């Protein structure tokens, strides 16, 4: 059929069953439009048809016959420059869809209203069909406002991040966009049973076995096998026709003591961990693992004090039970791998990963190859949030299918797979008791947390309470209750959001009991000088000073302001290096790290500009490849603090040597003054000295009739020292607030209680925040206090999000007098709560 | 119009925004090139005919429709997203399938896809219908059908005489509308508006935009004081609420009248909030439709 695409009359080969996004991507190689949700809700595939934005994932190919289609690749519009200038993006995977829609909106707005900025609600309504999982909405608002004012009609733009031009034009290549000649598509066959012995796998075609040695599937959605075919449609047909024999086993789909066992004594040792690093030690009692109590301080004293206070009904004993829902990472680029074996037997992986170096190492080990024969590429990565580390099932499937089929194989998880079995933050039930003495000082703390990470253990929540509010006695116990549900994986600040959900509300409650300002109480209890500086700043905010008295409002709409503090580790990859090579008059920087949307390319480029006095076009940053000098995984908020000092060291060495073409130098990250807390690095990571801090002050409006909570304004104070690249750093902190709002108000994985099937398997039913849910945000960086760290700055990706949900809850309490105990704060819960 | 003379084999496809998100494949029969059934035609008596292939976006931005039938245009402008509204049609909206996460998940079979049970009844009931009239508990998805109810609109189906829009639906748990396979909806007819009438629409959701409603409602108030109220998200069908309308006509205060919306509800352990939200949403639209402008 004939379609005019980006101005070029094109003959496309398309059937009536095809949707336009597949015709563009697979048929014509135009990969700007991304297939993310395939249900028309996320907008990443948006194109213009005869000038009107439409979602190409639901658009029959017949609907564009004879029409003019414009994709991001064919767009040349001021709003693209505005997105670059205002940093309206992070990972960039949603960006092509956003800019196509924004271009149409900006044109229509200016036509009707002239060159003025629209109200935020108009922008929100216009962009309602787009989702950004990184939460770059503040930049998107700013970009669209500026474009509407006509600020980017001409001239050059200094992009806030160096790869922005590729992302706003749809040219940036992600793993899902890779297509080799002769490439096949792989599909994973998954269990339909929550617990069963697989007795037979009968598939017509080349199959790769993905079952564990005991042939038992322990959750619905667990991989059984993978198959490949020249097209995805054929591969899906083969998978559909597969006959799997199951011998059913009773399934544990709740955490009751009588639930059937998930593991036996032998297999439970192999239970995966949802935490980073090692699994916490602890015994087993049925499906309950733990407790791990090693983080406690003077546990006996804490329990004695709390029990005595309970007996005397001490008003300064605050107790409560707080629960959190399972939160799913759902990066907009799903887990994806394209594997190719070359004629020399080298393995080439295009991989959507947060860990190019670790993936290469593990692939070499798994497939018994010399390290230099595995080549991992992740040029652009469409988000990760912790879910894309090491070698995961799509990689195993792609590599082994590629070997079996003697062809390159691409495996891309569907959104349903991504939302079912690609990582989640375990749900939790936390019991907390907080006791103050007659002076109002913290006297004792007890936290018991039962994590529910499906077949995984290691939720590790209570232990984070060791590191906050001084050294008063505390008993901290972490349990896991395993069930026949998909496993958790590390998720941006693993363990901390559920702890802070309970702890920061309990502290707020204590402030009310003591009739003390909640910020003043935290300032008194919290010994961290950097966070004290944030409290001082926060206490002076008009937002805080003008907050209403709790419970004083009676109208339908009630405004409230809440605060929460957050504490996080400073992690670093001590062995990080950056290589600089002069190629003609361009300086090329390399290190084995990757940009998942954090802006590390821009951090490196900024340092080189500063140290070498070079213009932007004489610097090129080549990351996202294994096989160069060691670089950090993008995990544990450690990319920038590891890479930046090494880049500066390299730049200074190059300056000393002179910039003649062909010169090559390697810079190292020198050790911090005073060394690290951990004596050696585990998986390339060390824990450094000092803790990062955050304080969030959040204002909400509660509609007591409809049960909704609207975040209006959030102030985020972040104490992570020197900020290397201001706009990307702010963007990440803003995104942290957005994800925290999602956790507080909307996000909740639902599992069918009878079959264990994940029901929230699409982006309609799994609800992530949209642009209309974005508050006005102010980020304040406190940059002192890290002089012992090489480079004086540490990571902010995690500390900027972990306390947000608790600040929302405290704001809801301030507005209504009702304290939310269960996440998310859904309309049904709020309506019930405020009527009680 | 050979398509009418030779009933086509295949799934009828208008905008495709619902069909292409459902499991199953073609052959499809594209209706988009059919002559006639797109656009709004005004009759001499002031009534409107809306062709079935008119897009939701066209309806939302049509000024004359907005003046005449504000509940319809407000509803059209609030559903789905701009990109969907640009493509989805009024016919497709009236005849779309429900959004139950069991029905849409290939792991389950249910009344709606050849099975003989409703897994939602023993499962996630948070979003289920609270007015329980069918073995299936999926709320009806068509916001426009709900809005059309307050205008006593009729639909024109090829080969039949026009009939009320409400008769498109019933409690049959195996389907979301009662047209036979191959039957084609051609148009919606709206009676002439009443001078000075007003209306309001409210969609109760958790997020601010782009979400299927927990509960939704429209109210239409004519200058003689008569009110028509219909609701969605609570039953297998879009529903007029004569109990509320009659209470208002009898002079009950709005809050009391809105509370009568609860009378038919039979909540389960997990959807009791829908009763609260239903009366709140009805009150909301009544207040909005009668507020001093």
From TrEMBL, chain A:
The keyword DNA damage does not apply. Pfam families: Fer2, Fer2_2, MoCoBD_1, MoCoBD_2. It comes from the Bacteria. The keyword Oxidoreductase applies. Residues 252-295 are annotated as: Disordered. Keywords: Molybdenum, Oxidoreductase. Residues 1-75 form the 2Fe-2S ferredoxin-type domain. Belongs to the xanthine dehydrogenase family. This is Molybdopterin-dependent oxidoreductase.
Automatic annotation (TrEMBL), chain B:
Residues 1-195 form the FAD-binding PCMH-type domain. InterPro entries: CO_DH_flav_C, Diverse_Substr_Oxidored, FAD-bd_PCMH, Mopterin_DH_FAD-bd. Pfam families: FAD_binding_5 (PF00941). This is FAD binding domain-containing protein.
